[in-house]
Design brief:
The two termini are 39 Å apart. Helix content is 40%, strand content 15%. It folds into two domains: 138 residues, Aspartate Aminotransferase, domain 1 (Alpha-Beta Complex), CATH 3.90.1150.10; 241 residues, Type I PLP-dependent aspartate aminotransferase-like (Major domain) (Aspartate Aminotransferase, domain 2, 3-Layer(aba) Sandwich). The strands form four sheets. The protein has a seven-stranded mixed beta sheet with strand order 2-10-9-8-7-5-6, with helices on both faces. Strands 11-12-15-14 form a four-stranded antiparallel beta sheet, with helices on one face. The longest helix has 39 residues. It is an alpha/beta fold. The structure holds pyridoxal-5'-phosphate (PLP).
Length: 391
């Protein structure tokens, strides 16, 4: 598979060498981080070093980081009607989520379905702030506190939500604000302060770290959620079970390097993305870049060619050695209709042609050039085929 071009970093990113090195070193050691002997203390030291790096990525206190099995679990932990917020017990009566959330958030955590309400988005996929005001006011007037969960950047379109504005509104209504920051952390300037969030969920594998490890990060160490897993009291009682030291070490390694390389990578990836989008539009003038005029993370392009079915095109790309995704295949690998594009009211004929290219740490100019060359060939053959079928 050496000649393949991997353009699906929003699904998962190839393992970075520094993660592999940190994991290999951790796997060579024996030791349960709860043990007090030297081996146990060495495992504990690796975990605490990683906790510091992950906290640093979003400007948090290390003690406010809880390691989980990934963002899905972090979100499930965060979306709880009961919590202690900065040491004060808080009860949320309703959960408000945007219409473009990942299924991990749409599942609603510990809120029953009848207490979950969807916040509308505009055609670019940006949360409608006026509607947010109206809905928050309605709940406040009815004596209901809201937990609001809006993602930082969308996995399909890359659109960045106005988190600061959302956070300010949620706090003015005495609500609690969680953000799924899986696609933004380490890819674009982001953190507790920039977002105003009380709770942040992230995952390692979108950054080039191992799969199966993520974190819930709170605004301070006195913010605590009722645990999903009870037992040995690990993670300060927030998540029982012997820690996966190697995965945590790999996560820490990529959190540190992503933070260090952020400014450089934002510019480099934006350059590649612009080149890719210009190239697409030069080859096929009818290409639609979804959410093109919204603020987006610099690695993501969601595009559609009217009349070309995404699942057919993605298979054609795969056969030519290019890995990319159709619509919202992010979580399941299935090609199905995209709830994100439906929430944006993108016409079904266009949505069924939506493809996502997502770049990352190992993407190069040569990858983009080869992708465009292959796109030109596939475009010519698929549009020719649909012309013949229509005739
Ligand atoms: N949220 C978003 C926006 C995602 O893209 C993903 C990845 O699939 C998740 C949550 C789930 O993350 P994890 O795979 O770590 O459970």
């Amino acid at each position: 598979m050496t000649d393949r071009i991997y353009l699906d970093h929003n699904a998962t990113s190839p393992l970075r060498p520094e993660a592999r090195a940190a994991m290999t070193a951790a796997l060579a050691d024996t030791g349960n981080a709860s043990s007090i002997h030297a081996e146990g203390r060495a495992a504990r030291a690796r975990i605490e070093a990683a906790r510091e790096a992950v906290a640093g990525l979003v400007g948090a206190e290390p003690a406010a980081v809880t390691f989980t099995s990934g963002a899905t679990e972090a979100v499930a932990l965060a979306l709880s009607p009961e919590m202690e917020l900065s040491g004060r017990p808080v009860r949320c009566d309703v959960l408000l989520i945007s219409g473009v959330e990942h299924p991990a958030v749409r599942a609603g955590g510990r809120f029953p379905a009848e207490r979950i309400e969807i916040l509308p988005v505009d055609r670019e996929g940006v949360v409608d702030l006026a509607m947010l005001d109206t809905i928050l006011t309605r709940h406040r007037n009815g004596g209901r506190r809201a937990l609001v969960s809006v993602m930082a950047a969308n996995n399909e379109t890359g659109v960045i939500e106005p988190l600061r504005e959302i956070g300010a509104r949620v706090h003015a209504a005495e609500g609690v604000f969680h953000t799924d920051a899986v696609q933004i952390a380490g890819r674009y300037p982001f953190g507790l302060e920039i977002s105003g969030a009380d709770l942040i969920s992230i995952t390692s594998h979108k950054l080039g770290g191992p799969q199966g490890i993520g974190a819930l990060i709170a605004r301070d160490a006195d913010t605590r959620l009722p645990p999903l897993l009870r037992g040995g009291g690990q993670e300060r009682g927030a998540r029982a079970g012997t820690e996966n030291v190697a995965a945590i070490a790999g996560f820490g390694a990529v959190a540190a390097s992503a933070g260090m390389m952020l400014a450089e990578e934002v510019g480099r990836l934006a350059g590649l993305r612009d080149r890719l989008e210009d190239g697409l539009q030069d080859i096929a003038t009818e290409v639609v870049i979804l959410s093109e005029s919204a603020l987006r993370i610099p690695n993501t392009t969601c595009f559609a060619v009217p009349g070309v079915a995404a699942e057919v095109a993605v298979i054609a790309f795969d056969l030519e050695g290019v890995a990319l995704s159709a619509g919202s295949a992010c979580s399941s690998g299935k090609v199905g209709s995209s709830t994100t594009l439906a929430a944006m009211k993108i016409e079904p004929e266009l949505a069924q042609g939506a493809m996502r290219v997502s770049l990352g740490w190992n993407s190069t100019k040569a990858d983009v050039a080869r992708f465009l060359e292959i796109f030109a060939r596939i475009y010519a053959s698929l549009t020719e085929r649909s012309r013949i079928q229509a005739a």
